[in-house]
């Protein structure tokens, strides 16, 4: 085989600047995952897929991706954001991907700046809606309080 493998035939993209795609992944995938982890755990769900069976969580997660996170992304992204959001909703709904809410909720103080705080601030400065991002941050705070009140240790390297 000459050259590189034909990864693009399987959907891989070759781009000159990966940063906008990394931001998209951190905000839309990881940010939504964090939203589901904190708020889903507080609602009594053990797994991410269980959150997605709740019509309210499913709808709010989609709103987070499309109405808030997507508006903070580089407009030059060469990707259909709606299709990406739909793919993530499908992935989060997969019962065979047993991501525990408590596992995803770990290390929030390190994860939230790029997943929630930066996009929240960007929307705030533009006077745009950031209600679901606010709910994500509030969910994290309530999750930490809940863990502490149950006398459990907070799995976060910055808890010192």
Automatic annotation (TrEMBL):
Keyword Oxidoreductase on entry: yes
Domain Mannitol dehydrogenase C-terminal, chain residue ranges per copy: 17-159
Pfam family, one: Mannitol_dh_C
Keywords: Oxidoreductase
Gene Ontology MF, one: oxidoreductase activity, acting on the CH-OH group of donors, NAD or NADP as acceptor
Statement: the UniProt record of this protein carries the keyword Oxidoreductase: yes
InterPro entries in the cross-refs: 6-PGluconate_DH-like_C_sf, 6PGD_dom2, Mannitol_DH/Oxidoreductase, Mannitol_DH_C
Source species, domain of life: Bacteria
Entry protein name: Mannitol dehydrogenase C-terminal domain-containing protein
Source organism per UniProt: Escherichia coli
């Amino acid at each position: 085989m000459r050259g590189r493998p034909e990864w693009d035939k399987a959907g891989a993209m070759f781009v000159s600047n990966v940063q906008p795609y990394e931001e998209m992944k951190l905000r839309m995938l990881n940010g939504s995952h964090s939203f589901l982890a904190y708020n889903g755990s507080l609602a009594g769900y053990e797994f991410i897929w269980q959150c997605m069976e709740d019509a309210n969580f499913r709808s709010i997660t989609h709103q987070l991706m499309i109405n808030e996170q997507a508006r903070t992304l580089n407009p030059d992204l060469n990707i259909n954001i709606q299709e990406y959001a739909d793919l993530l909703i499908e992935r989060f709904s997969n019962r065979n991907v047993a991501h525990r809410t408590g596992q995803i909720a770990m290390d929030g103080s390190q994860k939230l700046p790029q997943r929630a705080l930066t996009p929240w601030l960007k929307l705030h400065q533009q006077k745009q809606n950031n209600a679901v991002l606010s709910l994500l941050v509030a969910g994290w705070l309530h999750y930490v309080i809940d863990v502490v009140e149950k006398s459990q240790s907070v799995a976060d390297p910055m808890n010192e």
